[in-house]
Structure to design on (481 residues):
């Protein structure tokens, strides 16, 4: 457990200190949300209606940007080989990496989302459900995205490929994330079913994704 | 390894030998291909002669291509998933060949399903594409196929590419039901009417051509898959021979380089 905590601390610190990965993701998020109203037009009613969807989709794209580097730096400097031969099982290493991505990238993006909601005229009663749905749904993005990062580790043009591989797999998270917000705005009774399914998707990916990631890493670390 | 008699081989082990597969498939392939052509021809004639739908007119006949394509798009992905499982768990030598050959064929049938669906949708729904849940999940299935093909082509080491693609296929088969469930909260489509408990809801005069077409296109899928596997095995043999040739040439060159 101590190794788990140490590795998590190292990875979160690396995300914040190395190369400004968080800053890039946040900047991308802000830029996409700024460009969309320019493309769609400044109709505030329309923007309010589609705001949850725009915020969710842009958040996924921003998270994807940083996912490509999840294992790459560790493979390049050899620390992935050390981790693979160290005491911690590779599944646990994979889980730590994804958890660190969630803490270091996804959570800052979620914190940024309500601020961007102001730009999109998000209805007042949608803020809390939006943040809750994102907090609960983004672990699925980080963990399922980790599978893509592990699969494309040695691929050419990995960055574009990871989007092609992973975006279809994000569909359930996206749909129930938005259903949660819509359910809360239209009728507060519809909030819970979608919210609970979203939680189930996240929990399932936290359990299952490390198995796939470890299997993929084992093939590439020798 | 010194047993007097080898243990009885299971069905799949017996076909693990690529040479045996090549011999067997060479014998079977003409028959399957002929059956496919015959069944599709009969099915098309039956389908065109089937009673015209009183609401949809002749456009309903798109069904005879659309429905089998939809079923084959899912069968193709299942085949890839089973082959991937065979590769990762049993290291079956033909499993990877099968998974690789099935991907473009399955993708083609998925595309066929999407195209016929949107051609059918234009007169029925007034648009080539509506964000109907079932359309959406077929589109996502198409993206999953594209992902498999793209991942395999992006990794240079072929053995590694096979295994990573197999992992992706298995991840896909786990998530696919979740995607279908999440997309199909409420659907424009009619509920399943052929494969359901009790008598089929569709009239026999329409059902028979559909079944013949489904069988014919399935035969076509099998024939193409078999041919694809043969080609892949031959391609690998050529590659191995070339590698051996290069190695031999390098063997002659190496002492000179050392001097």
């Amino acid at each position: 457990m101590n190794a788990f905590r140490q590795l998590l601390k190292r990875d979160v610190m690396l995300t914040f200190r190395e190369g400004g990965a968080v800053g890039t993701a946040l900047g991308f998020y802000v830029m996409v949300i700024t460009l969309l109203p320019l493309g769609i037009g400044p109709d505030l009613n329309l923007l309010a209606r589609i705001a949850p969807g725009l915020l969710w989709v842009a958040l996924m794209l921003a998270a994807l940007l940083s996912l490509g580097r999840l294992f790459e730096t560790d493979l390049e400097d050899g620390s992935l080989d050390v981790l693979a031969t160290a005491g911690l099982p590779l599944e646990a290493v994979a889980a730590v990496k994804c958890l660190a991505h969630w803490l270091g990238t996804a959570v800052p993006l979620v914190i940024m989302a309500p601020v961007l909601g102001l730009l999109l005229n998000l209805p007042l009663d949608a803020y809390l459900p939006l943040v809750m749905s994102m907090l609960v749904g983004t672990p699925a993005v980080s963990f399922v995205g980790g599978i893509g990062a592990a699969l494309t580790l040695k691929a050419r043009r990995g960055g574009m490929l990871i989007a092609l591989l992973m975006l279809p797999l994000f569909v359930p998270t996206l749909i129930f994330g938005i259903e949660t917000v819509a359910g809360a705005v239209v009728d507060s009774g519809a909030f819970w079913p979608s919210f609970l399914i979203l939680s189930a998707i996240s929990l399932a990916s936290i359990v299952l994704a490390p198995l796939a990631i470890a299997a993929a890493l084992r093939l590439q670390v020798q | 390894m010194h047993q007097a008699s080898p243990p009885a081989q299971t069905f799949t082990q017996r076909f693990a030998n690529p040479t045996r597969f090549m011999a067997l498939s060479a014998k079977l392939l003409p028959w399957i291909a002929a059956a496919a052509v015959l069944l599709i021809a009969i099915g098309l004639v039956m389908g065109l002669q089937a009673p015209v739908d009183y609401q949809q007119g002749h456009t309903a006949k798109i069904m005879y291509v659309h429905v089998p394509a939809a079923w084959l798009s899912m069968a193709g992905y299942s085949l890839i998933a089973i082959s991937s499982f065979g590769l990762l768990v049993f290291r079956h030598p033909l499993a990877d060949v099968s998974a690789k050959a099935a991907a473009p064929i399955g993708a083609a049938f998925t595309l066929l399903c999407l195209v016929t669906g949107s051609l059918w949708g234009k007169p029925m729904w007034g648009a080539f594409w509506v964000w109907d849940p079932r359309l959406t999940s077929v589109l996502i299935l198409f993206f999953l196929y594209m992902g498999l093909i793209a991942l395999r082509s992006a990794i240079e080491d072929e053995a590694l590419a096979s295994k990573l693609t197999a992992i992706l296929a298995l991840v896909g088969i786990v998530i696919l039901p979740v995607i279908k469930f999440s997309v199909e909260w409420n659907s424009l489509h009619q509920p399943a009417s052929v494969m359901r408990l009790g008598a089929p809801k569709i009239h026999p005069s329409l059902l028979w051509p559909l079944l013949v077409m489904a069988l014919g296109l399935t035969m076509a899928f099998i024939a193409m898959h078999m041919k694809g596997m043969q080609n892949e095995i031959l391609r690998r043999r050529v590659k191995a021979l070339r590698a051996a040739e290069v190695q031999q040439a390098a063997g002659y060159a190496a002492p000179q380089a050392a001097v």
User: Anything to note?
Assistant: The radius of gyration of chain B is 23 Å. Chain B touches chain A at residues 88, 140, 143-144, 146-147, 150-151, 154-157, 160, 163-164, 167-168, 170-172, 174-175, 178-179, 181-183, 185 (CB under 8 Å).
